[in-house]
Design a protein that fits this description.
two-stranded antiparallel ribbon, globular, 13% helix, 2 helices, BH3618-like, mainly beta, 9-stranded antiparallel sheet
């Protein structure tokens, strides 16, 4: 077990075998290479991708298929190889969530998903070249935005 400090959840203890390894980091945050997925609330589709190295760095993430059922992505052979994926079902796809307080919208970035090898926990943010998707795909409005904001403030 490993203890990590977080600004949202305080000190949390996680299994060292649950730490995701992102050799390239998240775009814009390349210095952090290790993350854990933390539950916000049981049964919530929202999770927190918490950096192990930085207590303040955490991203709200979702399984995009729960909100965009027809979301489909093609992973390049190079990306699949770098993640060590031997079968498509080994891949877990997460997308980051943003809450726009002014527009009262909750959006997700469908262009830059984070792909995790569920077997090895190697992870990588990939950039898709698919014009069907945007970086701010609306997944919720008004009350959902308030609920996400309340969660992130309370944590």
């Amino acid at each position: 077990m490993v203890k990590i400090q977080t600004t949202r959840f305080g000190e949390v203890e996680v299994s060292s075998s649950s730490i995701l390894r992102m050799d390239a980091g998240v775009l814009g945050f390349e210095q952090c290479k290790r993350y854990v997925l933390l539950e916000d609330k049981p049964e919530s589709p929202l999770k927190w991708l918490q950096a192990v190295e930085d207590p303040e760095l955490a991203f709200i993430v979702i399984n995009p298929m729960e909100f965009v059922p027809d979301y489909g992505m093609e992973l390049s052979d190079e990306d699949a190889e770098s993640l060590g994926l031997s079968a498509p079902e080994e891949a877990v796809v997460l997308t980051t969530v943003t809450v726009d307080q002014r527009a009262k919208e909750v959006t997700t970035n469908l262009v830059g998903p984070i792909v995790v090898n569920s077997r090895t926990l190697a992870a990588k943010q990939v950039v898709l070249q698919d014009e069907r998707y945007g970086t701010k795909h609306v997944i919720g409005k008004s009350t959902e935005a308030d609920a996400v904001l309340e969660t992130s403030r309370a944590a």
